[in-house]
Specification:
Elements: E1 2-6, H1 10-22, E2 26-30, H2 33-42, E3 47-51, H3 59-70, E4 77-81, H4 86-95, E5 99-102, H5 107-145, H6 155-172, E6 176-183, H7 186-193, H8 195-212, E7 219-224, E8 227-233, H9 237-253, E9 257-260, E10 263-266, E11 269-276, H10 283-299, E12 305-307
Parallel strand pairs: 1-2, 1-3, 3-4, 4-5, 11-12
Antiparallel strand pairs: 6-8, 6-11, 7-8, 9-10
C-alpha cells in the first residue's frame, strides 16, 4: 500500500514509517497539514495517518477537503491524537475519518491497524477493477450499437429494436410507424465540398432528426450512407405523417447550403412512411413499403413526405 503520514512530530512519523516498511508498504511523509493535503490531491494513496492536532490546518477541515476532492476515490484516514474524549471522536468520524489511534503510538497496535487496512485496500482495488470493467463494457456496447460519426443508434441497434417493436405491435394489435429518410443530392454535396464537410453535414442531419423525437420509445438511427430510419411505436398514420413533416422541416431549417447550377440551394430530406396495422407479416415487408414510399418521394420532387 501507499501510506501517507501527516504529523509535525518526527518521532510519530518515524514510528509509522518503520511499522509500515516492516510490512512491506511504501511510506510518504508530510510535516504540515497543507503539505500533506497537497500531496494527497496530486497522488494516489491507499491509507493516511493524520495528526489530529495540526497547528497549520484543522484536521477536521482537512479531512472534509480530502473527501471532497477525492470523491469516489475513497481510502481510510486514521487520526493520531493525544485526545481521548467522546466529542472529539464523534466529530472526527463525522468529518470522514475511519479510525483513531492514541498517542504515544503503540507500534503493535499500529501494525495491527495497518494489517486491517490491507483487507480494505484489497476490496477497494477489486471494486475499482469492477468499475473499470463496467466502463469498458459500456464503451464496447456503444461501439457495437451506435454510429461513431453521428452518435445515433446504428443498423444493428435499429434491427434489434424494430424486431422487438414489431412483435409487440403484432401481439398487442397496436400500430407501428417507420420512416425511411434520405438526404437529397448528398453525392453532389460530397463531390462539391469534400468528405469532411460531408461528415459534418451527416451529423447536422442526424441532430435535426433526433431533435424532433420526444418520446423515450422513439428511435432514430443511421441506416447506412446518407440514409436514416426512424421507429415510432404505437403511432398511427396521422401521427407518423406529423412527425415526418416535422423532421423534414427541421432539416430544412438547418439551412445547410448547397450551391447548385441553378443558384443557392439548401440540403433537404426526402421521407418514405409505412404504417403497420397488421397487414405486414414481417419487418422486411414493412421496411420495403417505407423504401417504396421513399422512392415515390424522390420521384415526385424530393424534400417531401410520401406514405406507402
Amino acid at each position: 500500500m501507499k501510506i501517507l503520514v501527516i504529523d509535525a512530530c518526527k518521532i510519530s512519523r518515524t514510528i509509522v514509517a518503520e511499522s509500515a516498511l516492516v510490512l512491506g508498504h511504501e511510506i510518504y511523509h508530510a510535516a504540515t497539514g497543507r503539505e500533506g493535503l497537497a500531496f494527497a490531491k496530486e497522488n494516489n494513496i491507499d491509507l493516511m495517518f493524520m495528526d489530529a492536532d495540526m497547528t497549520d490546518l484543522n484536521s477536521l477541515v482537512a479531512t472534509k477537503a480530502i473527501r471532497a476532492f477525492k470523491k469516489e476515490d475513497w481510502f481510510p484516514i486514521i487520526f493520531l491524537s493525544n485526545k481521548s474524549d467522546t466529542d472529539f471522536y464523534t466529530h472526527a468520524m463525522l468529518a470522514g475519518a475511519d479510525a483513531y489511534l492514541q498517542k504515544p503510538i503503540n507500534p503493535s497496535y499500529l501494525q495491527l491497524q495497518i494489517t486491517a487496512m490491507e483487507r480494505i485496500c484489497l476490496m477497494r482495488s477489486r471494486l475499482q477493477g469492477h468499475k473499470k470493467l463496467i466502463v469498458a463494457n459500456e464503451h464496447l456496447t456503444k461501439l457495437a450499437m451506435f454510429d461513431q460519426l453521428t452518435g445515433l443508434p446504428n443498423r444493428r441497434h435499429f434491427e434489434e429494436t424494430l424486431n422487438r417493436e414489431f412483435n409487440l405491435a403484432k401481439r398487442d394489435k397496436a400500430t407501428l410507424t417507420i420512416l425511411v429518410c434520405d438526404i437529397d443530392f448528398f453525392k453532389v454535396y460530397n463531390d462539391k465540398y469534400g468528405h469532411q464537410e460531408g461528415d459534418k453535414c451527416l451529423k447536422k442531419i442526424a441532430d435535426a432528426i433526433d431533435e424532433v423525437l420526444t418520446r423515450p420509445a422513439d428511435l432514430a438511427s443511421r441506416y447506412g450512407g446518407e440514409e436514416f430510419i426512424v421507429i415510432l411505436p404505437r403511432t398511427d398514420l396521422a401521427g407518423g405523417l406529423k412527425v415526418a413533416e416535422k423532421i423534414r422541416q427541421s432539416v430544412y431549417d438547418k439551412n445547410i447550403a448547397l450551391l447548385g447550377s441553378k443558384g443557392e440551394l439548401r440540403v433537404t430530406l426526402s421521407l418514405g412512411l409505412a404504417n403497420y396495422t397488421g397487414q405486414y407479416t414481417n419487418t422486411d415487408e414493412l421496411i420495403k413499403a417505407a423504401d417504396d414510399a421513399l422512392y415515390k418521394s424522390k420521384k415526385n420532387g424530393r424534400n417531401r413526405v410520401e406514405k406507402a
